[in-house]
């Protein structure tokens, strides 16, 4: 397991769908079984040239700068090729130890470079006739080796050789990134020619992803690109009332994280985990979770076949959500808001009426 065990326990807890859940482990196991079954069905139905990219959301899973991913490609004659991220693409502190590497090999993965064209990735060759076995291997890789606590922390994209999305049935509780665009009507955002030009520029695949992201954020905030607030980690900061929203660009695989530390120095309790689970279930996109003593909100946006409107929606939702939720959750669970000077952990009872003031965000 490469993900932090304490964070894993916290992430598991937010999956509670009711306070009286007796056997969370059984529920998580069932969720992974459903995911593997859905993946096997999908593998059996796709034609040559189709790709399936599965990524453990690094913000929601607490894996920092590490991005754990598996990519599956359908070849002619029902052949299937899969690649799994190796240590060469993981930062120090998140690389797999000998035991984890041995587990990958035991699952059937060939070490990096052994499968032709695999490069720094672990490789696996199979066939659509063995879709069930392959889906099981991929599921166990994501869960047991990469440390995904639940399929809900996976983001996936199914696309063809031209990177055009392919419509498919849901992969259980995993999140399909293209669905983010279904919530957005570009006419609601495009109110001037400047924004249209920025979108056209940001959609240009020739421009590096980080430049496209900065163009979108700068245009939305009506700020020159060179005046964006960027910290030492390269994260773009956007103030939203008493909250702070960050936009982070990752290279391999291409991914854009839109996230916010809603509360810090908060006491993790069962009531908090249940509340975060309830709120996440009502969110159109993204999720809320608690890692150690911080409550986070996260919306991932795929960088491959980057859609500026997807990032715009993620930023709009996150800025409104963070500014509203940090106040609500602070009032109920205490902790400190990003710009909440003098905040103290003084939980206050919340009324049922206030519990439904989440508007378009939840």
TrEMBL record:
Pfam families: TY-Chap1, TY-Chap3. InterPro entries: TY-Chap_M, TY-Chap_N. Gene3D superfamilies: 3.30.1460.10. Residues 336-362 are annotated as: Disordered. Residues 209-340 form the TY-Chap central domain. Residues 30-154 form the TY-Chap N-terminal domain. This is YbjN domain-containing protein. It comes from Paractinoplanes globisporus. The lineage of its organism: Bacteria, Bacillati, Actinomycetota, Actinomycetes, Micromonosporales.
């Amino acid at each position: 397991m490469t993900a932090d065990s304490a964070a894993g326990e916290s992430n598991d807890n937010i999956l509670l769908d009711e306070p009286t859940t007796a056997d969370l482990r059984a529920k998580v196991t069932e969720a992974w079984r459903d995911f593997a079954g859905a993946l096997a069905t999908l593998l059996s139905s796709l034609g040559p040239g189709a790709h399936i990219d599965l990524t453990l959301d690094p913000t929601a899973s607490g894996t920092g700068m590490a991005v754990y991913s598996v990519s599956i490609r359908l070849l002619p004659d029902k052949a299937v090729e899969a690649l799994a991220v190796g240590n060469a693409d993981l930062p120090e502190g998140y690389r797999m130890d000998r035991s984890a590497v041995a587990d990958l090999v035991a699952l059937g993965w060939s070490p990096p470079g052994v499968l032709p064209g695999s490069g720094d990735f672990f490789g696996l060759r199979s066939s659509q006739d063995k879709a069930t076995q392959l889906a099981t291997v991929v599921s166990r890789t994501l869960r047991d080796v990469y440390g995904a606590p639940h399929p809900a922390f996976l983001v996936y994209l199914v696309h063809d050789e031209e990177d055009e999305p392919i419509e498919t049935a849901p992969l259980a509780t995993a999140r399909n990134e293209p669905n983010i665009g279904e919530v957005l009507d570009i006419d609601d955002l495009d109110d001037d020619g400047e924004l249209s030009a920025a979108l056209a520029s940001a959609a240009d695949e020739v421009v590096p992803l980080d430049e496209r992201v900065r163009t979108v954020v700068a245009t939305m905030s009506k700020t020159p690109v060179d005046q964006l607030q960027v910290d030492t980690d390269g994260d773009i900061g956007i103030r939203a009332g008493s909250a702070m929203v960050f936009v982070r660009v990752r290279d391999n695989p291409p991914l854009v994280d839109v996230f916010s530390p809603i509360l810090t120095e908060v006491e993790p309790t069962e009531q908090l985990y249940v509340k975060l689970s309830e709120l996440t279930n009502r969110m159109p996109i993204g999720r809320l979770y608690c890692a150690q003593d911080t409550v986070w909100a996260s919306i991932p946006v795929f960088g491959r076949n980057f859609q500026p409107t997807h990032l715009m929606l993620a930023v709009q939702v996150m800025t409104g959500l963070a500014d509203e939720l940090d106040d609500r959750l602070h009032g109920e669970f205490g902790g400190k808001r990003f710009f909440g000077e003098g905040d103290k952990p003084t939980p206050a009872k919340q009324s049922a009426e206030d519990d439904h003031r989440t508007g378009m965000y939840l």
